[in-house]
Design goal:
The chain is mainly β and about 550 residues long. The chain is built from six helices and 32 strands. It folds into three domains: about 20-140, Immunoglobulin-like (Sandwich), CATH 2.60.40.420; about 155-335, Cupredoxins -  blue copper proteins (Immunoglobulin-like, Sandwich), CATH 2.60.40.420; about 355-550, Cupredoxins -  blue copper proteins (Immunoglobulin-like), CATH 2.60.40.420. The protein has a six-stranded mixed sheet, with no helix packed on it. A six-stranded mixed sheet has the order 21-20-25-30-27-28, with no helix packed on it.
Length: about 550
């Protein structure tokens, strides 16, 4: 009896500790026009609370986050909390017309959700049009009180957000491209924490500076918020130790260069262990599509040691070539998950759904475009188009037909030599992609394995694919056509990296696996924003489970209506 009372007391103490460590963190976001000066010109942009980037949100695992969004901008608006699982809170996920209708100008909506079973660096951004070019910010989830990091505690934590800048209204840039059927204009600059750095015109003093003390260690929470570019990042004379990606802890990996795709996050430990001085940090594009235009500029900031002479010229790192695929592939494939670490989920071994999904660029018919076609993109030859009258999640919850079709195929309609550009470009059955709103329906708690296969129809490039609502294990990656006999032998089933966004190698493939344990409608799309309106996307409809805690609750009363 005494032993029973002892264990009961311990359980109550643990429960009380867990409850006490959870809080409600509340913010108000005012989205409105902001006039900023960059690259010698003034530009009106859409921003949150008058800042670029927007506010950094800091919470602890287990907290509830409430963000009241007031749309004072002239555009429809939604916000996405990139990488947040949204367990039983799909109504707060944010992709336009997938989980909600947009917040109209003058409207408001409160996003409310719990941060459960994950910690690390995530971020938030607009999920309408190209507005996330300036509507974005960091979301940092720290461990609960009393729970340490699985690495030595750093002396300071610093968000590093990469952005992309146009000397134009980004909504106009996108609309002009869609009207013409051609690719949009490339950006004019990259930024670090909203600042372009001293290589750009009129930007000598618009440069991010990180002040450090020799002997101390800094946790850099790196976020690629750029719209259309994967990036190389280096700090002169310094190595970095990767300890997490996409809010999932990793086996520590020491590297001189970080490669990061749009939507991805990387946490690194930076030891201030060099001679006292000033060192440039720099980022530029990794461009894998041969011949395609891209922003070939470089943004940079400065790491300044305490006591460094102000007159000293900072040292510049030697950057990789823009098309250095071997360096990118080495970085992406050398990262492994911290098996047994906080929130580690073992790789599921029983597979319920096998999918082989091709993805790439093509064309669609456009009578109003100059040449009768426009650039398009597809997955398994289905080019995604958003509904216009009701969100897909509302259609799922209220059982409304006609909004989407449950016919996204498990395999492509035609088998072909996927990465052979010389053959595929001449095949009209591959080149023209039909438009649809097709989804894959999954039973609750089913396990999905997807082979993501790049194609070479119009062009071949690295595609950063983002899955809402889940993390997935990256079992393997490679080049060429996936071999279902040989390549499974390469699977890492012990400690693969866990991500929400995967850069599928240029002219290659990646295999991911996840468990569909969250009811709702979950978007999967390329996080190059140039490709999203072209249709490089699909969605998963995860059915409700058998119990109340596996069933999607009703929508909040203030959910925007179409």
């Amino acid at each position: 009896m005494l032993r029973l009372l002892f264990w009961l007391t311990c359980a109550l103490v643990l429960l009380a500790s867990s409850v006490a460590s959870a809080a409600i963190v509340e913010h108000s976001f005012y989205v409105k026009n902001l006039t900023v000066r960059r690259l010698c010109t003034e530009q009106v942009v859409t921003a949150v609370n008058g800042s670029l980037p927007g506010p950094t949100l800091r919470v602890q695992e287990g907290d509830t986050l409430k963000v009241h969004v007031f749309n004072k901008s002239p555009y429809n608006m939604t916000l996405h909390w990139h990488g947040v699982f949204q367990l039983l809170s799909a109504w707060a996920d944010g992709p336009n017309m997938v989980t909600q209708c947009p917040i109209p100008p003058g409207g408001k909506y409160t996003y409310q959700f719990k941060l459960l079973k994950q910690e690390g660096t995530l971020w938030w951004h607009a999920h309408v049009s190209w507005l996330r070019a300036t509507v974005y910010g960091a979301l940092i989830i720290r461990p609960r009180s009393g729970h340490p990091y699985p690495f030595p505690k750093p002396d300071k934590e610093v968000p590093i957000l990469f952005g992309e800048w146009w000397n134009a209204n980004v909504v106009d840039v996108e609309n002009q491209a869609l009207a013409s059927g051609a690719a949009p204009n490339t950006s004019d600059a990259f930024t670090i924490n909203g600042l372009p750095g001293d290589l750009y015109p009129c930007s000598q003093n618009r440069i991010f500076k990180l002040k450090v003390q020799k002997g101390k260690t800094y946790l850099l929470r790196i976020i690629n918020a750029a719209l259309n570019n994967e990036l190389f990042f280096k700090i002169a004379n310094h190595n970095m130790k990767v300890v997490a990606v996409d809010a999932g802890y990793t086996v520590p990996y020491v590297t001189g260069v970080v490669v990061i795709g749009p939507g991805q996050t990387v946490d690194v430990l930076l030891a201030a262990d060099q001679e006292v001085g000033s060192y440039y940090m720099a980022a530029n594009a990794y461009s894998s599509a041969a011949g395609a235009p891209f922003d070939n500029t470089t943004t940079r900031g400065i790491v300044v040691y305490e006591g460094a002479p102000t007159s000293a010229t900072p040292i510049m790192p030697l950057m990789p070539a823009f098309n250095d695929t071997p360096t990118a592939h080495k970085f992406f494939t050398n990262i492994t998950g911290l098996a047994g670490g906080p929130h580690w989920v073992p790789v599921p071994r029983q597979i319920d759904e096998h999918m082989f999904v091709t993805m790439g660029l093509g064309l669609s018919i456009c009578p109003t475009c100059s040449n009768g076609t426009r650039l398009s993109a597809s997955m398994n030859n289905f080019s995604f188009v958003s509904p216009t009258t009701l969100s897909m999640l509302q259609a799922f919850f209220f059982n409304v037909s006609g909004i989407y079709t449950p016919d996204f195929p498990d395999t492509p309609p035609i088998k072909f030599d996927y990465t052979n550009a010389s053959i595929n470009a001449l095949n009209p059955s591959l080149l023209i992609t039909p438009k649809s709103t097709s989804v894959k329906v999954l039973k609750y708690n089913s396990t999905v394995e997807m082979v993501l296969q790049n194609t070479a129809i119009l062009a071949v490039e690295n595609h950063p694919m983002h899955l809402h609502g889940f993390n997935f294990h990256v079992l393997a990656q490679g080049f060429g056509n996936y071999d279902p006999v040989k390549d499974p032998k390469k699977f890492n089933l012990v400690n693969p990296q866990s991500r929400n966004t995967i850069g599928v190698p240029v002219g290659g493939w990646a295999v991911i696996r996840f468990t569909a344990n969250n009811p709702g409608v979950w978007f999967m799309h390329c996080h190059l924003d140039v490709h999203l309106p072209w249709g490089l996307a699909t969605a998963f409809v995860v059915k409700n489970g058998p119990t109340e805690d596996s069933t999607l609750p009703p929508p909040p009363a203030d959910l925007p209506q179409c």
